[in-house]
Amino acid sequence: MGWKLFGSYFGGVATHFYKIGVDGGGTKTELILLDSSGAELARHIAVGCNPSQVGAEQARIILAVALRELTAKHPGPISHSVLCMAGNGAFWKETAAALKDYGAITTLDDSVPVLELATNGAPGLVLHAGTGSFVAARSLDGAVHYAGGLGWKFGDPGSGFDLGRRAIGLALLELQGLSKQGSAVSPLAEALRTHTGLADYSAISRFLYNDAGANAKIASFAPQVLALATADCGPAQQVVADSITDLARQVDQVIHRHFPQPTTKFPCGVSGRILNSEPAAFALRSLASKLQWPVELHFMDTPPIEGVRRLLARMG
Length: 316
What we know:
CATH topology of the largest domain: Nucleotidyltransferase, domain 5
Mean pLDDT: 91
Radius of gyration: 22 Å
Number of domains: 3
Order of helices and strands: EEEEEHHEHEHEEEHHHHHHEHHEH
Strand content: 15-25%
Low-confidence stretches: 1-14
Oligomer: single chain
Largest sheet: 5 strands, mixed
Structural class: alpha/beta
């Protein structure tokens, strides 16, 4: 990966310079500011900036405001910025080209930092799930490959949105079949009532189809689904198993495409709170064994921004 390197001189005068790293996802946008030695000076967290979720204009605004907030207390020359962003890569390249005073800007897919954490530059894979999900792999020739990240309309199994969507659908079917108010419901259906603040199928369905914030509400139901699955709620466990099985099919395709006839096991990082939860991790381990993946699963609790820091460190 070719980085455009700046020296430590601006206008012929030696000076300190700063570097900026951004991890922009669907749930949050996290930024770090480092000095020329790599020491952290500031960190800032903003709302998610995936243009597929918030729209192109709002995504640009979120990033621009977050960059200003990050650097407000540390004015000075910036040599490099690396933006690791969810969503359309061409959109972020165009956005980066319009940014001023942030040094040499490199835009990367949001899979690159977690792949860096998972494999340390060696061949291997990483599975990541937040609001969306993806699989990234570094093949034997060093090339990086990406699968998934299609967004809430078309896939992303194992993600917060997929778990929420599946669980809500199951709960709505249950509520739809109730013959009278006050009837007993499963813990999953009761959790959906609490989550939406609405009591019956019609009201919940109408809200989820018409409210502007419905997608966020669907994705934010995932932690409750995982908690219920951990507490042996059968419907919630089935939702997790089905979602992770679909993710495993995607992983299996990536392995067969990029690691044919392996002679050794490769590192496979598992990133994000969802996949590191007890029910999701159990499902992944079972499927990896059943499908005979040539990998060693490594469940990671290191946040992606630390992978961004490693990428910045390579810039000198």
